[in-house]
Give the backbone structure.
Amino acid sequence: MDKNNIYNCNLIELPKIHNKEGNLTSVENSKEIPFEVKRVFYLYDVPGGESRGAHAHKKCHQFIVAASGAFEVLLDDGNVKRVIQLNRPYMGLHIPPGIWASEINFSSGSICLVLASHKYDEADYIRDYNEYIKLLK
C-alpha cells in the first residue's frame, strides 16, 4: 500500500464550458486527473443519514465529483482527519491509494460520480479500519 497522507488528496477544478444551453464539463485520461480511468461508477438515492465508502485502496486512485447535489468526504490517513465538501460538478477530489475515505452528509438528490484508476478488485480494498491502521505501521 502506498504511503500517502491526506495532504496528497487534492481538489481539482475541471474545465467548464458555459453557454446559453447549459454547462459542460469533461475529463480526459491523464490530463485533468493524474491517472488513466479504468472504471466509472456513481452513487445515488443515498438515504438521509447514510454514508458510503468507509474503506481504503492499496493501489487504486479515485477521483470523486458531486455531479449533482452535495456531500462531504471524510479523509483519514491514520494520523490526521480532514473533511472536504463537494458541491460543484466542475470540482473533483483526487484520493490516492492508502487513504481511508467515507462519503457522508449527502443532500437529497445527490449523485456521487467516481472515476477509478483500476477495475474492480476486492483484494485492493481495505474495509476494516483496524486492519488499515495495522498496515500503516
Remarks:
- Residues 6-136 form a domain with the Jelly Rolls fold (CATH 2.60.120.10).
- The radius of gyration is 15 Å.
